Amino acid sequence: MTPNRLGCHGSVSTHMTKNDSDCKKTFPTALCMGGSLEAIRRLLRGRGGIEKLLMMDTSCDMVKLCKDAEQQMLNDNIETSYIIGDEEYLPVKENSVDLVISCLGLHWTNDLPGAMIQSRLALKPDGLFLAAILGGETLRELRIACTIAQMEREGGISPRLSPLAQVRDAGNLLTRAGFTLPGVDVDEYTVRYNSALELIEHLRAMGETSALLQRSKVLKKDTALATAAIYESMFAAEDGTIPATFQIIYMTGWREHHSQQKAKKRGSATVSFQDIHKQFSS
To answer: What's the angle, vertex CA 253, arms to CA 104 and CA 50, rounded to 5?
Structure first.
């Protein structure tokens, strides 16, 4: 099943498209790859001066879902094409798009730096890369409860969730991929469930459990029950619901262009940090 069916994906898409509308530059050709395609397609209407939109996903079912949803939309004069492809092997020519968007899809990529490099190469000069990925603080409550339960019941731990990037890694990824003017922003969403077992079933339905090849593929019943009990004892609210944290990291970067502002040469500053420190101290 295709991942990224998070309950907060509408808010994520809104945040991303708001960032897009904060920029006065227009993006005639845009590529949206992986995750929440339908939400992005809906929220991009009338934004960014988009005239041609390429919708790409690795799942045939997701592409079909997006196509079916488009039939219910009003005509927005955007030429839309649908592609079945992989972020790690972009079926897009170099220097062919003005905007690349990824909403909660890249955290499933095996070679994330490589996928971001391909995204940069697909962009025209001064093109924008805009992405949201799940951050390392996602589901921290479940990770703690599951670790304790596995240690008690099995004497060791096996990852039940896929590894995720930390906030400090996001800027390094943008720089490593060759983007200029990198920017990173973070949001946290708390989703409440009736029980930990309900959360676990939701994650399974979203396909957001561990995708590692070397993992324990069976979650024992007594371990699952222990996880739920520990989760509820440590994190349950007064009304009996349990919180699940989803951390979203937003990344923006541009393909290099001569018109972009650049850092001044070393030693060209006319004011020292000591003077600035004295000014603010006073």
So the answer is: 75
Q: Retrieve residue 85's tokens.
A: 């492809």
How much is the pTM? 0.79
What stretches in the chain show pLDDT beneath 70?
Answer: 1-22, 35-38, 72-76, 156-161, 210-219, 282
Q: Which residue in this structure is represented by tokens 């050709």?
A: 29
CA neighbor of 181 nearest in space, from 10, 44, 55, 25: 25
- Record the tokens describing residue 183, joined without a space: 């920017």
In this prediction, residue 150 carries a pLDDT of 84
Tokens of 97: 């798009």
Percent of the chain with pLDDT over 70: 82
CB 31 within 8 A of CB 101: yes
Distances (CA, A) of 174 to 96, 223, 252, 259, 272: 20, 39, 8, 20, 29
Query: Contacts by 204-210 with C-beta closer than 8 Å and gap 24+?
Result: 205/1, 205/5, 206/1, 206/3, 206/4, 206/5, 206/6, 207/1, 207/2, 207/3, 207/4, 207/5, 208/3, 208/4, 208/6, 208/161, 208/162, 209/160, 209/161, 209/162, 210/159, 210/160, 210/161, 210/162
CA-wise closest residue to 166 among 140, 137, 127: 137
Residue the block writes with tokens 């845009």 = 30
Of the candidates 156, 54, 162, the one whose C-alpha atom is nearest the C-alpha of residue 100 is: 54
Digit-coded pLDDT (tens) for 105-119? 888 788 889 999 999
